[in-house]
Structures are given as C-alpha cells and as structure tokens.
Design goal:
- There is one protein chain.
- The protein has 12 helices and 14 strands.
- By secondary structure, it is of the alpha/beta class.
- It has a single domain, classed as 3-Layer(aba) Sandwich (Rossmann fold), CATH 3.40.50.720.
- The strands form 4 sheets. The chain has a 7-stranded parallel beta sheet, sandwiched between helices.
- The longest helix has 24 residues, at 109-132.
- It binds nicotinamide-adenine-dinucleotide.
- Nicotinamide-adenine-dinucleotide (NAD) is lined by residues 7, 9-13, 31-35, 74-76, 96-100, 118, 122, 142, 144, 208, 210-211, 237.
- It is an enzyme of class 3 (hydrolase).
- It comes from Alicyclobacillus cycloheptanicus.
Length: 383
C-alpha cells in the first residue's frame, strides 16, 4: 500500500514509518518538524540523541535498501497538503501530526489557541484533500483515550447503545475530555464523522492510550534511527518519565494520590495497530473507532512497579513524590474500557514486563548526562 505518515518525525510516527516500510509498503513522511522547535521553546530535548529527519531516512536507506520520501511542511497550509496528496496519491494516511501534550495546551491562552488551530485545521485540510484528490484514501487518525474522560460506566469503542423514553439508538460515546488538547481531538472526531457521513470517505479513529517504551526492532538498528523519548514535565508521559527519573536519582513524580487510571500500550503495539488498521480499511462512509491500548494501570501502580524493578535489577532506591496535582481530574475513580476490535484483527500485545522497564532504565542510565532536572517538574496548571 502507499501510506503517508503525517507526523513521521515524531515519537509514534518515526517507528511507524520504519515498520510500514520494512513490511513492504510504499511510505512517505510529512512533518513540519515543529516538535523539535517545541523542545527549543521549553529548553528541553529528547533523552536519546536524535538525528535530523534527512539523516534518519538516509540511515534507513542504508539499513534496509528502502527509500522514504519526505515532505516538509505544515498541515495547516492547504497548498502543502494538496501538493503532497496530488504527488503521492496515498491509499492511506496515518495522521499523527498534531500538538499532543495536554500540559502544553494548558500553558496559557496562546498555547490553547495554537493547539486547537494546529490540530483542528490540519485535520480539516486532510479531510478536504481526501475528498477532492484521493476519495478512496483511508484516513487513520490518532485520537486519544483521554477523549472519553473517566465516566462511572464502562467505556465502549466509540459508540454506545442508548435506550431513552422507549426508543433505542447507537450513538457516539459521550466525551468528557481532560484538557484543551484532548478537546481538540474530540473536535477532530466530530469533523471526521461528519465528513464520512457527508462525503462517503473512510476513516478509522484510533483512540490511543499512553504509549510507553521507545525501541522497536527497526529503531534499534543504528544510532541515526533512534527514536525520541521525552522525560520533561510537559511532554514526558507516565512510565517513560518514571523510568528516566529512577535512573537519574530524581523522585518519581506522581501527581496527587496517583489513583488516576489510564489505558497504556507499548510502542511496538502502536506500530502493529497502525498496520492492522491499514490492512483492514473502514468501508466508504464508515467512521470506525478503535480503542488502541492493551492494559490499564493507575499512575501510582506504575510508579511502584518502576520503583521495584529499579531496586531489584539495579539496586537503585527510587523515591515516590506525591506532587500537588497541577491538573483538574479525579484521583480515584472507576475505569474500565473495552478494547477488543484490534485484538479481533490480530493484534499480538506486548504486555508490560519488568524487562521492558529495566530496558528503559538502562537506556536512561546511558544518556543520563542529557537529563536536565530543571524541566521535570510540571510547569503548567489547569486552574
Ligand atoms: P510527537 O509530538 O512526538 O509527534 C508529532 C509529530 O507531528 C511531530 O514530529 C511534529 O513535528 C508533527 N506535527 C505537529 N503538528 C504538525 C503540523 N501542523 N503539520 C505537520 N507536522 C506537524 O507526538 P507523538 O507522541 O508521536 O504522538 C503522535 C500522535 O499520537 C498525536 O496525534 C497524539 O495526539 C497521538 N497520541 C500519542 C500518545 C502518546 O503517548 N505519545 C497517546 C495517545 C495519542
């Protein structure tokens, strides 16, 4: 298949592009490289050293013999999107290219407005390009489990059957997002659903959990293929952040009680899920929703697990610090989300193992000199 990976220079996009290329698909990457600029803005950097996108694709050509053409540009520019669709003629577009940090979206008005413009406008341009240039192209869009919030009932995969005053319908599952970032994903979902209904395009919304790990078979092959991994208070996510904190002697930063339960998956499962979605496209006019995760954990449970592995495998005594919670969220709640559709398509999950945690701690130990303690504490607040 011809697959365009938008956001292919990012944490999920880069390993996905390599995985799809390795599996024999014709892959192109689109990226504005803005993620690298956010590092500069926040005074941080990936724990692992990452090569430029140009060096990355050159290293991949050398390692695999396969070329990945690159389109550098902003999805907010329709001229750019139109040119790329006309030239590459994708069978599928995997759309990762958004501002993905909830804390970044909550810094102030400018960052909230930027996040929603970047995400909603970019996605709308992609929808129009599909409609006008490649109407059969399957949109595989990254959403988030955070769109649903934490309702006191089971979370279904996109839709729920409701009985009301003697009548029944299957309706979109209610959304109670956590931040202006998560809200941008809800707006995207609505726009995609409407476009599927109105124009007959095909789309899969992947409501992804928090992704942990960084290595895939392909990204380990050469230093220029290494994936990025974030540890700072704005872009660093639970588990990856805890492992890096344990390795560097920083307390593990749990916000509030730590009973916040979320859905998680290994980056090796992200790349698998994307290929499964591409190989089994939605029907024309169908807006399909998959909950893309493999397990759920509370934040404290993860911190305690990292603490145990750090002690058992490395004799490191990691301390857990309960920081005042910068977010407005429930710290103890019911959480149970359905996630069977990707398993039905053949997903073989990599469940969280002590070995994976140890591998992350080892990686962080190798690059501990790149860690700046000043950027670890949460710097934006919801209130
Ligand atoms: P990332 O920030 O590492 O990568 C996103 C990439 O998109 C970056 O390379 C950035 O330069 C590019 N980009 C952003 N806006 C763009 C624009 N307007 N035009 C062109 N390129 C643009 O993020 P990630 O962690 O790889 O996440 C990828 C997607 O998956 C996001 O949509 C995110 O919301 C979703 N997601 C991620 C996680 C996670 O744990 N990382 C969890 C759930 C959902």
């Amino acid at each position: 298949m011809r697959i365009l990976v938008a956001g292919g220079d990012g944490f999920c996009g880069w390993p996905t592009a390599l995985h799809l290329s390795k599996r024999g698909h014709e892959v192109a990457i689109a990226d504005s490289l803005i993620r690298r600029k956010w590092d500069e803005e926040l005074g941080t950097q990936s724990l692992t050293p990452i090569a430029s996108l140009e060096e990355r694709v050159a290293a991949w050509r050398e390692a695999s013999g396969k070329s990945i053409p690159v389109y550098i540009g902003d999805l907010m520019s329709y001229e750019f999107v139109e040119h790329m669709f006309k030239e590459f003629q994708p069978d599928a577009i995997v759309h990762f290219a958004e501002q993905r940090s909830a804390p970044y979206s909550m810094i102030d008005r400018e960052h909230a407005v930027f996040t929603q413009m970047n995400n909603v406008v970019g996605n709308l341009n992609v929808l129009y390009a599909i409609k006008d240039i490649t109407p059969d192209c399957h949109l595989i869009k990254l959403g988030t489990m955070g769109e649903y919030g934490t309702p006191n009932i089971d979370i279904e995969e996109g839709y729920i059957k409701i009985q009301h005053k003697g009548r029944e319908d299957v309706l979109p599952y209610p959304k109670q997002p956590f931040s202006f970032y998560h809200l941008s994903k809800v707006h995207d979902s609505h726009n995609i659903m409407f476009a599927c209904k109105s124009w007959g395009i095909r789309a899969t919304d992947l409501n992804q959990g928090v992704v942990y790990g960084l290595w895939t078979e392909e990204t380990r092959q050469a230093e220029a293929l290494y994936n990025r991994v974030d540890y700072d208070g704005v872009f660093g996510t639970a588990l990856n952040r805890f492992c890096i904190q344990a390795a560097t002697g920083h307390p593990l930063t749990v916000y509030g009680k730590g009973g916040q339960t979320r859905a998680f998956l290994d980056i090796r499962d992200t790349v698998q899920c994307i290929e499964l979605a591409a190989l089994h496209p939605a029907e024309p006019g169908e807006f399909r929703v998959f909950n893309q995760f493999t397990e759920q954990f509370s934040v404290l449970e993860l911190a305690e697990r990292v603490q145990r592995v750090a002690a058992e495998r490395f004799s490191l005594q990691a301390e857990i610090a309960h920081l005042p919670n910068p977010r407005v969220e429930k710290e103890e709640h019911y959480y149970h989300a359905v996630h069977t559709k990707l398993l039905d398509l053949g997903l073989q999950p990599h469940l969280l193992s002590d070995d994976l945690i140890a591998d992350l701690i080892e990686t962080a130990t190798r690059y501990r000199d790149r860690v700046d303690f000043d950027v670890i504490a949460p710097s934006s607040t919801w209130r």
